[in-house]
Design brief:
Chain B: Homodimer. Interacts with APG. Component of a nuclear cell elongation controlling complex made of ILI5/BUL1, LO9-177 and BC1. Binds directly to LO9-177, and interacts with BC1 only in the presence of LO9-177. The structure holds two protein chains of two kinds. Chain A is an all-alpha fold. Chain A has a domain at 196-249. Chain A has helices spanning 2-13, 18-31, 35-59, 66-69, 76-121, 126-140, 147-160, 174-196, 206-234, 240-256, 262-284, 293-303, 311-323, 328-337, 343-360. The N and C termini of chain A lie far apart (96 Å). The chains are: A mainly alpha, B mainly alpha.
Chain lengths: 361, 88
């Protein structure tokens, strides 16, 4: 009877194995009277229990608690057997927990080691060493705490140390670790760039990717230059020198690298006649309101000279200004030219210059 | 076997170094740093930022261009010329 109770407990202990349970029940009903057979049965069941606990251990789940199993054993003798069996259960459970904890601690110690190395390596990287110190403090605690906190610590460590963890067979000296960290960072940036550059994810290999990135940056630079050129061209008179400047620069670029700029050569060739067209227009359209500041300045300079001889040096000094690279020439020229004018006009002019500069940049 | 692999590796390493210096020359603010080769990580980070800034610039410039086109008087001779430029 007592052994029967023990069998009952073990039956409830692995309640999810239904077929095994029914089999055990049938066997128990048969052999209940025979003590020896019962003992044999008990040993059999104990074996089964070990198997079940092994199953639990390998699955990583918590085995059902033993006190729940006592519900099924109604007999008084069952209580005794239960008490007799209880240490076994407790030992088995504690064994499995111990095993798991030992496993966790091994996992913790493995990342801990490279972390110490990284702390030794990265004196210039305190952001890496600081979480390491924090984790080391936490590593000490789970030795006497249940397995749940140990699992949370490992989860946190997994995210922290993925970069510096040394796998089996990898070197753990400081130089190798530093190199590994560096390579990790580089590949991370490369991945980021891959997202940024279209069509880069088709290319495999670092060299191809770098090639693609370089091409993309060059095309973007060209695009920016072309767009600013278009804007400069659509605001014709003021930015005439800048168009010329861009034009000259791109021509020199094209001369240096003729194959690289086939796309730029075409619009430039078509820009040229229009620019040339502009110069007669400049003289024709002096009265047009839609023309830019520069023309108005020249016009107003001619129409309302504060000092009589002003118009002649104006015409003379604007011409070289057009050829001067950048806005500095304009600035000097305008200050020299319009020193006799009122201040607001000059501020408009300088605003315009700033605008040009921005566009050119 | 190992020697062949190492020689191939060194070639690709050279290639990559070349490409990286080329990329460095493309970046605007890395030019002044000159010969002192910055770390690849920093270079790649700068490249990311530079590409982003170029994107922004392109967007800004196209916005301005469309604004200019919208505010332009359509039958003035200046607009004619601009349109002929833009069509190219």
């Amino acid at each position: 009877m007592a052994q029967c109770g023990g069998g009952d407990v073990s039956r409830h202990r692995k309640g999810h194995l239904d077929t095994v349970e029914s089999l055990c029940q049938g066997l128990l009903d048969d052999v209940m009277l025979d003590d020896d057979k019962c003992r044999a049965m008990f040993g059999y069941l104990q074996e089964w229990q070990d198997l079940a606990s092994m199953c639990y251990g390998s699955l990583g789940g918590e085995p059902p608690l033993a006190p729940e199993a006592s519900n099924g054993s109604g007999s008084s003798g069952g209580g005794g057997s239960f008490r007799k069996r209880r240490p076994d259960d407790a030992k088995g459970e504690s064994n499995s927990i111990c095993k798991r904890q030992r496993g966790k601690q091994q996992q913790q110690q493995q990342p801990c080691h490279p972390d110490q190395m990284a702390a030794a390596v990265g004196k210039g990287r305190p952001e890496r060493a600081r979480p390491g110190a924090k984790k080391k403090a936490e590593v000490a605690s789970p030795k006497d705490s249940p397995a749940t906190s140990a699992s949370t610590v490992t989860a946190g460590q997994k995210t922290d140390y993925i970069h510096v963890r040394a796998r089996r067979g990898q070197a753990t000296d400081s130089h190798s670790l530093a190199e590994r960290v560096r390579r990790e960072r580089i590949s991370e940036r490369m991945r980021y760039l891959q997202e940024l550059v279209p069509g880069c994810n088709k290319v495999t290999g670092k060299a191809g990717m770098l090639d693609e990135i370089i091409n993309y940056v060059q095309s973007l630079q060209k695009q920016v230059e072309f767009l600013s050129m278009k804007i400069a061209a659509s605001n014709p008179v003021v930015n005439f020198n800048i168009v010329e400047d861009l034009f000259g620069r791109q021509l020199s670029q094209a001369a240096c690298n003729p194959a690289a700029l086939p796309a730029m050569a075409l619009p430039m060739a078509q820009v040229e006649p229009s620019c040339l067209q502009m110069s007669p227009l400049q003289q024709m359209q002096t009265s047009a309101g839609s023309s830019g500041y520069g023309l108005e300045m020249v016009v107003s300079n001619q129409y309302s000279p504060p000092g009589g001889p002003m118009s002649v040096p104006a015409g003379a000094s604007v011409e070289p200004c057009l050829n001067v690279n950048g806005a500095a020439g304009w600035d000097i020229g305008s200050h020299g030219l319009f020193s006799g004018f009122d201040a607001p006009f000059q501020s408009v002019q300088s605003d315009c210059l700033l605008d040009n500069l921005k566009m050119e940049m | 076997m190992s020697s062949r692999r190492s020689s191939r590796g060194s070639i690709s390493e050279e290639e990559i170094n070349e490409l990286i210096s080329k990329l460095q020359s493309l970046l605007p603010n890395s030019r002044r740093r000159g010969s002192s080769q910055a770390s690849t990580t920093k270079l790649l980070k700068e490249t990311c930022n530079y590409i982003k800034s170029l994107h922004r610039e392109v967007d800004d410039l196209s916005d301005r261009l469309s604004d200019l086109m919208a505010t332009m008087d359509h039958n003035s001779p200046g607009a004619e010329i601009i349109r002929s430029i833009l069509r190219s």
